[in-house]
Amino acid sequence: MTPFEAATIFAAGLAAGTINTIVGSGSLITFPTLLAFGYAPLDANVSNTVGLVPGSLSGAFGYRQELVGQRPRAIRLGMASGAGGLTGAVLLLAFPGAFAAIVPVLIAVALVLVAAGPRLSDALAAHRHAESDRSWLLALLFFGTAIYGGYFGAGMGIIMIALLTIFVPDDIQRLNGLKNVLAALINGVAGILFILVAPVHWAVAVLIAAGSIVGGQVGARVGRRLPAPALRLAIIGVGVVAEARLLLG
Length: 249
Hints:
Blueprint: H1 3-22, H2 27-36, H3 41-62, H4 71-94, H5 103-115, H6 117-124, H7 136-151, H8 156-167, H9 172-197, H10 202-223, H11 228-248
């Protein structure tokens, strides 16, 4: 690895950590960067996932004030997320190209849900209660989202925040903090499996980790200062760029 490659991978990790904490889709920066430097897709995917775990933890720590009082909610959704993340990681190792065709569809649907979130939330207000995060449907949807997250994960944060804003009556900043915790869990479970059995390139993973830790703190500082409409707009904006990149290759 040349100094230029190392610096570029570190910078990609920093950008990904920042974007993941605020929105999601950071893998659309790091993953193509690794492919551009000649890493095989499977190697790039697993090394990227392992590298982004510390960044997810950093972002979750940055949102620690917003997480106060959300432990029961995090535990309930965390069980579905952890199981899904492990399932997705197993599927990646068994079927490396299985999700390629549906990734743009998943992100497009999530963007529509984020954009329509306030109206959908108001429409569902009469049919939900303070403990709506206990919903079996929300747990099932998070399990499915986590499968995708353990498999590839670009846009996973957008899908999660869309689901949370629709199902859970709470401030979007608090839900974003919860999203970061669940993303850290999904990436962490998948990362552990990859460390045990997959071809992780440790130099790459360490560089992404170092960058994403810094990025997680930057993202938390920026994201926590954004008003709810601005945060929602940022999520949609990044998602549209991610969608364009996926569709245009």
